[in-house]
Specification:
Blueprint (H helix, E strand, L loop, with lengths): L4 H10 L3 E5 L2 E5 H17 L7 E5 L4 H12 L3 E5 L5 H11 L3 E4 L1 H10 L3 E4 L3 H7 L15 E6 L9 E5 H15 L7 E3 L7 H4 L1 H6 L3 E4 L7 H11 L2 E5 L1 H14 L6 E6 L6 H11 L3 E7 L2 E8 L1 H5 L6 H5 L4 E2 L3 E6 L12 E7 L10 H7 E2 L2 E10 L5 E6 L4 E3 L2 E3 L1 H9 L4 E11 L3 E10 L7 H11 L8 E4 L13 H12 L1
Parallel strand pairs: 1-10, 3-4, 3-5, 5-6, 9-10, 9-11, 11-12, 12-13, 24-25
Antiparallel strand pairs: 1-2, 7-8, 13-14, 14-15, 16-17, 17-19, 18-19, 19-20, 21-22, 23-24
The structure holds adenosine monophosphate.
Length: 506
Amino acid sequence: MNIAHWLSRTAALRGAAPALLAGEIVVADYARFARDAATLGGALATVGIAPGDRVAIFAKNSTDYLIALFGIWWAGAVAVPVNAKLHPKEAAFIFDDSGAKLAFVSSDLVTGVRAASSVAVVETGGDDWGAMLRSGGAPAIHPRKPGDLAWLFYTSGTTGRPKGVEITHAMLMATSLAYPVDVDPVEPEDAALYAAPMSHGAGLYALVHVLRGARHLVPASGGFDAGEVLELSRKLGPTSMFMAPTMVRRLTDAAKAAEETGEGIKTIVYGGGPMYVADIVEAVDWFGPKFVQIYGQGECPMGITALSRAEVADRDHPRWRERLASVGRAQSTVEVAIGSVDAEPLPLGETGEIMVRGLPVMPGYWKNPEASAKTLRGGWLMTGDVGRLDADGYLTLTDRSKDVIVSGGTNIYPREVEEALLTHPAVHEVSVVGRPSAEWGEDVVAFVVAAPGQTPYEATLDAHCRAEIARFKRPKAYRFVEDLPKNAYGKVLKTDLRARLEDEAG
Ligand code: AMP
């Protein structure tokens, strides 16, 4: 079954319900949304896009994004959403690698794409786009099998070239249907607010909102602006949105400064990177029980674990903080285990690589059998994340396996050191990495961004660490920096930090 059926189904049932909102303006109801997607699908077929062909979307968030996504599926083609913050050359790599025959590109990015790639471009909202939407032929949805490819998801590539994760129609359905069960029920009066890139988790969450006939609210800025999110939610809520941890931090800061309570916000799903306990406690204290955590990766999109709203907010639970530091329990469609380097499950409580199997797990990487064989082993997806499970099934992530620091033969998990440093009021952001050391193998080094108006000193932070964590885990050195290098998804680039330390060493 083609996932585009979810749109035609909702259009048949609730055609007059508001579907797409650009800022505060309703630009389409469900009947119009489905008609546009169908017409675009028909137009794609007439320009030579056959079922299974790849069509890229390199665009800022907009209501057209959703029309493009469903139009591509309507035609039986494969969507290749590309993060709009990537350099056009990086986008060109993805167009090439995926063999995209066409790219829908937002106006701000067209010039860059034309300079970097020879892919055929249709500017969203431009003349050709308009002509496609007026082309008149609105064919039936092209049939797809559950295992057919729907979305090529390019990994964020914090190391090396991004790889294309194959996401099938069945995977999209599995991960979407788990959402109301494991994350948050969706009601037709809800609005999915797109604060994070649609090329990533926020776009995946569009699907269950289409199925439930909810509204899709795209902020006029096309990006993340905390003030805009607060205002739109207040005016048009109940809103639900996905946010990376850094966005939650910024939202809390902005709301506190403006004395906004987050009225209208129903749910903020956070994930995609480590959420520090101090930050989520502050967010829940300010906004109330509106937060749900998920842990996923492109290879099992949004679909590994969830920590429910009640668990995030339940201060009275004896293990509240411990659970808050975890990523919750396996979602309904997957099994999670901790494995050895040979992908053999380890006894309960041991720390090792997180392995996943179940419905939303990828069949492999696009045209990359070598990487697929390394990642899919013995029926498990090897996530590259390190963690442990407790007896109740709560999973605690320590780090990416490549970020673990081995000092004096002992593993040190940077996350633990970062959590400790973040509880110091002079620390705003921190990232901890290993530096080669002749004596220890690796030394712990902390890159620290000071809190506004504060000057953290090495000696103070060292004393703070001694009070919080084992002595051998304390950073041997500190680097005070203005900001941390991050990729287009807001993830800290530890590879860059390690390279800086190597440069220092000469
Ligand atoms: P991506 O494939 O770009 O979505 O990146 C997925 C990676 O982000 C995972 O393998 C984890 O390392 C990290 N990640 C995702 N969700 C969480 C979470 N809730 N807590 C900590 N790290 C996370």
